[in-house]
Structures are given as structure tokens and as C-alpha cells.
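Just curious: can you write a single protein's sequence together with how it folds?
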Amino acid sequence: MTNAATVAPPPTPPTGHHGSTGVVRRTVAVVLRRHVIYVAFVVVFLLFAVLLAGDGFLSRNNLLNIFRQTATITVTAVGMTFVIACAEIDLSVGSVAGLASVCSAMAIAHYGIGAGILAGLAVGLVVGAINGGLVSLLRIPSFLVTLGMLGVAAGVAQWITDSAPQPILNDTFNLLFGGGDLGPVPGLLVWMAVAVALGAVILNRTRFGRHVVATGGNRTAADFSGVNTRRIKFQVLLISAVLASIAGMLYAGRLQSGRYQWGTGDELSAIAAVILGGTSLFGGQGRVVGTLFGALLIGLINNGLILAGLDSSQQQVVRGAIIILAVALARKK
């Protein structure tokens, strides 16, 4: 008779109704978390459609206004998506937009539309090159570099204009950059669609896009894999500044003037749109289409608050709450 130790069999994984229910719940939770921005957009839209139906919320003009007011933020936010997916930040985009608008306006007044467009793009190229060089070559944190550039660009724009608006009397520029329509479609909507389409393709379907995500996800691993992470950081900051300068020219074309105030605060709206859209604040993931819906959600809320009669201070409170929510969602992910 032997006294062999009895070995208990391993626990059997849960099966049946309760096990499958848990799997379904987890799957639903993951799907909702991935698509929360789309669900939120639909819910907010339906809520305003019911509550503000008598205030013209669903009118064609009002819906087109939402797209017009969102377009410039979306163009800026597409560039911000690349930056944040790379685990960097760009706080200078609002000031770059303002500087580009006044440089374009001043160049148009003296040399014509061609010079105006080149001047606006040059602002983005110069600022992006400076930001990218300081971050990638000198390894200064992008938060500090772009925070400093925010002040520099805003100060230069105010200095060269003596704080005065710069009118744009060139009808071609105004029509091309946001003031005109392509048939029934506002020109700003075309700019927004092109920026989102190109951004989504580049980030999701190209080698460069994969390198951006890899650099943001794990820079050390990306370096060992042969990715030139310094160059990638330089390039994403350059892209962000150029798109911000285009947004500045869209402000100028739509409002027929260049002003240093254009773009003020856009950096916060762009960051909120990117994070709400599903891009991780800590890098390694980027969703350009989600950014579009994040920007549209912010524009939708702003429009609804105006129609509801809230004053500017109350609107600022709500926008601040949206940014806090965006960061909270990023940490949860």
C-alpha cells in the first residue's frame, strides 16, 4: 500500500453562461472604449437636435457653420496627431497660425497672392525647422521648446503689425483660402477633408507613419530597429507647424484679414480633439479620423452652447472640462 501524494487537478476555466457573458462584456467594453468618440458625437448631436430644435440647430446654415468653425482647428489637429503619436507636444501652433496670417496679408498687400502664399508657408517651415532642430538635435523637451516658440511667434506677429489688423483685398486669396464655396460645399470643408484624408493615409498606410508610431511607442526599440527617431521627431514638428500656418491662412482668407489674435488658444483645442479622437497622450498610437470627430464634437458643443445662450465665460468652463475629460480618457487607455 503506497501513500502517494494526491495531486489536485488544475482548475477548470469557467464555461457556460457566466463565462461567455464575461467575455461578451469585456468585448463590448473594449469596442466602446475604441469608438467612444463616435458614440459621444452621436449622443451630443441628438441631444442638441432635441433641445435646440426651435433655435435652428438643424438648419443647413447652422450645420455648415459648425463645419466652417471646425475646419481650421481640424487642419491644425491633424498635424498635432502626428506630434502626439510620436510622444511629443506642440504648444506653438496657435501663435504660428496668427503669425502666418499676418505675414500672408502683408506679403499680398505688397507683392501679390503668390508671395502671400509663400510667406505663410515659410512661417510654418521656419518655425517647424527651429522646433524640430531644438528637440531632435539638442534634445530639449518639446514642451519647453514649443512653449517658448508660442511667445516668440505671438510677439513677432504683434510687433511687425503694431497690433493692427492687416486687411486682405485680394479676392482670389480670400476665395481660395476659406472664403469661397466649391458648388454647395464650403471651401473650408474641402481643406478639412483633404487634410484628414492625407493625414490618415500617411499615418496608417506608409512607412513614415509606422515609424512615427514606433518612435512614440518605444523610442529605444525603434532605434534598435533602425528607425532614425531624431529625424522622425524633426519631421513631425515640421508637419505640425506647416499645417498650423495653413490654418492661419484659412483664418485670413475667411475673415479677409491677418491678425496676430487668429489662432489664440487653438493649441488646447487641437490637443483636446486629438486625445478625444483616440490618440494616446503618451504616444504610440494615432487616429486621424478620430481627431476629425474630436474636433467636430468640440465644434458641436461650442455651437450648442452659443445657441443655448451661454456667455463666453461659461463656454470657457465647458471647454476646460472637455480638456480635462480628454486627459482622463488618455490616462485610462
